[in-house]
Amino acid sequence: MSGISAIRVELSGRSYDVMVGQGLIAQVASLAEEALRKPTVPVVADARAWEHHGAALSAGLRAADKEIALYTVEPGEGSKSWSSLESLTDWMLDQGVERGDQVIAFGGGVVGDLTGFACSILKRGCGFIQIPTTLLAQVDSSVGGKTAINTSRGKNLIGAFHQPSLVLADTDTLASLPVREMQAGFAEVLKYGILGDAEFFLWCTNRSHDILAHQPLVLKQAIAQSVQAKARIVAEDERELSGRRALLNLGHTFGHALEAQTGFGDQLLHGEAVALGMVLAARYSARRGELEKQDAQSVAEAIGRTGLRSQIGELGLSCTGAQLVEHMRHDKKMDAGTLPFLLLRSIGDAYVARDVDLADVAAFLDEQLRAPVTA
Ligand code: GLY
Fold first, then answer.
1. How far is the CA of 85 from the centre of ligand 1 (A)?
2. pLDDT > 60? residue 212
3. 249 C-alpha to ligand 1 centroid (Å)
4. CA–centroid distance for 49 within its chain
5. Contacts for 324 with CB less than 8 Å, ≥ 6 apart
6. Is the pLDDT of residue 33 over 90?
7. Are 126 and 219 part of one and the same domain?
8. Active-site residue numbers?
9. At 338, phi and psi to the nearest 5?
10. Does 249 map to a domain?
11. Domain of 238?
């Protein structure tokens, strides 16, 4: 047993803890004792996560004489839709969920985003507890209160800031995660190092094998340190107003264009797109003369070492840089005609550049698309 880390997200009246460790699901009743005030607890679960870990949650709640009212959600982005939101909110109303109640979101980013958004609007807002079961959700989406659904006009365009009242990141749930999803989540772990902590970047780089092999102490430390980094930034800029929180979007603008080009499907998972996006942000920073070429290379190598793709040539896209930039024009970070880009001055020092010329980005992407893929 490797102990539990508790990280506080400081948001005055909306502060909460993120607990990271092994076996947390089994202890849910004591960890969330005050929040779970009724004998029946509403749980919204990803169907696959429920298959693997539902029994542990049921047992944990049964130990405190609580029953579960279960609503399952099909895995995949398709569940972040208006129709899923309508069905879920109807179900919550049928369950008699009240403002003071807590709904448990059990699964990855899709379930967290959908449930969080439903809870932000149910009776003008009820509580929710995040139990993230993917690495990506544990280090990023379950913390910080961004909730959303997708529409035909794009991803995450309808949503709200709604903070959970507790997050339980049980590292045991990651054992059932496909390697590819571990790698995709690991990209978000590396992100915290690349954007703000060179030492953590180095630590992650040296321990990528142990993290991906689920070495419990190392995995817990990687998650806890990522959550700490995120908690600090969210506490400073909850609603992404000052530019601080925008740093968390490192790799997302380039990555989003690649996701859009590949149809937001299985060809490129979100974390994989962010990984490639961070390499592109680093290489573009070097092209602007702001980052040492060697540092851009180190970012690419760290990502490549985890088994993630680090060159866009590996995607085999038959598009132009201009087509990728076209996707960026629909980015929700677009601000009065300019698109802020997250760039690097060094590893551990990201900043928001507001002077980026999209034609120059298109030319850069053309070069990257044509660059020969190296082994
Ligand atoms: N994933 C970026 C953020 O939470 O702000």
1. 21
2. yes
3. 6
4. 17
5. 254, 257, 258, 261, 362, 365
6. no
7. no
8. 124, 146, 188, 230, 240, 245, 249, 252, 256, 270
9. -115, 150
10. yes
11. 204-370
